[in-house]
Write a structure and sequence with these properties.
The complex is a heterodimer of chains A (112) and B (115).
Chain A lengths: L2 E3 L4 E5 L4 E3 L2 E3 L6 E6 L5 E7 L5 E3 L5 E5 L4 E6 L8 E8 L5 E3 L3 E6 L1
Chain B lengths: L3 E4 L2 E4 L5 E7 L5 E8 L3 E10 L2 E4 L7 E3 L5 E6 L8 E8 L10 E2 L3 E5 L1
Parallel strand pairs in B: 2-11
Antiparallel strand pairs in B: 1-3, 3-8, 4-5, 4-9, 5-6, 7-8, 9-10, 9-11
Classes of the chains: A mainly beta (112), B mainly beta (115).
Chain lengths: 112, 115
């Protein structure tokens, strides 16, 4: 069975600084990996995905993620954080019935 | 664009009561899912359906039942609610086609409190 780990419950970063939200995964076969964002009292919104190809994936709102097969990681990054990026971020891996298995989530707070 | 719609958005139940959450999608998606979200635990899959008339168990199915009588609707039922079922429930859907690369579409959530 597949699994995802997000080792940090909380990440704080100053506005304008780069941010990284960490994710590691475990899956048999080629991984399909995703990042979603959740704002308070809202559903999950898709940010980006890795299926195949370039290890650096670009997504919505200036986010990107780096896939590293040897380290089984898929870290979310952004060069310059905004206060409006403050939200709950989930990493996920796809299973055989196209269902997603999610990590526990990382609360990102960008400080003005 | 309605997308994925969940009703009700909020509900308070007493222990032992029953209720049904409705998920409706207008995107002609074959696959539908019910997740629950609890603090510090991410989203966990309760049940899912890969087509009309079919359902399957996910990671945490106990205490829940589901039905998919119509392609666009996926119902989640609690026959006898327990306080441990206090949670936020999310429905999601996706196309089954081979060209689909896996982005799930989520509803806005249904917050259930069991007293």
């Amino acid at each position: 069975a597949q699994s995802v780990a997000q080792p940090e419950d909380q990440v704080n970063v100053a506005e304008g600084n780069p941010l990284t939200v960490k994710c590691t995964y475990s899956v048999s076969g080629n991984p399909y990996l995703f990042w979603y964002v959740q704002y308070p009292n809202r559903g999950l919104q898709f940010l980006l995905k890795y299926i195949t190809g370039d290890n650096l994936v670009k997504g919505s709102y200036g986010f990107e993620a780096e896939f590293n097969k040897s380290q089984t990681s898929f870290h979310l990054k952004k060069p310059s954080a905004l206060v409006s990026d403050s939200a709950l971020y989930f990493c996920a891996v796809r299973g055989s019935a196209r269902q997603l298995t999610f990590g526990s989530g990382t609360q990102l707070t960008v400080l003005p | 664009n309605a997308g994925v719609t969940q009703t009700p958005k909020f509900r308070v139940l007493k222990t032992g009561q029953s209720m049904t959450l409705l998920c409706a999608q207008d995107m002609n998606h074959e696959y539908m899912y019910w997740y629950r979200q609890d603090p510090g635990m991410g989203l966990r899959l309760i049940h899912y359906s890969v087509g009309e008339g079919t359902t399957a168990k996910g990671e945490v199915p106990d205490g829940y039942n589901v039905s998919r009588l119509k392609k666009q609707n996926f119902l989640l039922g609690l026959e006898s609610a327990a306080p441990s079922q206090t949670s936020v429930y999310f429905c999601a859907s996706i196309l089954a086609g081979g060209s689909n690369t896996g982005e799930l579409f989520f509803g806005e959530g249904s917050r259930l409190t069991v007293l």
